[in-house]
Amino acid sequence: MKKIFFLTFILILTSNIHAETKLSSHKNVFPFKYSPTPALELTLTKKDNVIKVTYPEGNTEEITTLETKNWNGNYNITQDLNFDGYVDLGLWVSVNPRGLNESYDIILWDENTRKLKKVANIINPEIESNFLIENIIDTSSICPNEDFLCAHSNRYRWKNDSLVIHSTLIPEKNNHTTIKFYKNERIVKTVTVPNKQIKTKIEKWDLAN
After folding, report:
1. Do 162 and 134 touch, CB atoms closer than 8 A?
2. CA distance linking residue 188 with residue 3, whole number of Å
3. Which end of the chain has fewer CB atoms at under 10 Å, N or C?
4. In terms of residue numbers, what domain contains 43?
5. Exposed, middle or buried, 124 (CB in 10 Å: 0-12/13-18/19+)?
């Protein structure tokens, strides 16, 4: 059973089974074909824990490895993850013992080199506006005044194909959330606001910074 709680931007899942991000698709189970552009088709395959891509010219290269080599049912992501107009990959590589925090290697399509490149690893990724969001579920504690596990949400923006952390959202008591804002990967401001003010607070921060 899955139990989902939306705190404006935060996805919180509680389950003892394999949980999937909303970005993943049952169509993307190895082997599968993937098109970074409409005119180009690549083939993704897995043998044991090694994932390889085959390009149209026939050349094959290893792009990542799984921590659990015998896990065959993982769904992968084919989405434009860095908002450049090309379809990228999120490849499932591991899951924690409770099946809640799933790690995906973020692999971008580089139109200049016409190849894939691994740039990051994100837990339970989601997309919202121009953010790539990482939802890390706290398996050790229960949400304040609730009966399910909480997640804190790291929100990233892209800069030169690298992820730069923008903010972290942490659920608090009485329908409030703490927001930590970053500059140069350091926390520069922390505020706690009612949940209904989260979006407004983030928009004001972006306008001022």
Report:
1. no
2. 34
3. N
4. 3-208
5. buried
Residue 149 token pair = 């596990």
φ/ψ (deg, to 5) at 40 = -130, 130
Both tokens of residue 23? Answer: 């970005």
Highest mean pLDDT among 3-17, 146-160, 193-207: 193-207
Using the structure block, give the residue that is written with the tokens 């107009």: 85
Q: Mind listing the pLDDT tens digit for each residue in 96-131?
A: 766 678 899 999 999 999 999 999 999 999 998 889
pTM of the model: 0.82
In the chain, the number of structural domains is: 1
Read out DSSP for the chain?
Answer: --EEEEETTEEEEE-SS----TTEETT--SSEEEEEETTEEEEEEEETTEEEEE-TTS-EEEEEE-SSTT-----EEEE-SSSSSS-EEEEEEEE-TTS--EEEEEEEEETTTTEEEEEEEEESEEEETTEEEEEEEEEEEEPTTSSSEEEEEEEEEEETTEEEEEEEEEE-STTEEEEEEEETTEEEEEEEEEGGGHHHHHHHHHHH-
Q: Whose structure tokens read 């930590």? A: 180
Token representation of residue 89? 């990959």
Identify which of 125, 138, 105, 99 has the alpha carbon closest to the alpha carbon of residue 19.
99
User: Cβ–Cβ contacts within 10 Å for residue 147, how many?
Assistant: 8
Long-range contacts of 180-187 (CB under 8 A, 24+ apart): 181/205, 181/209, 183/209
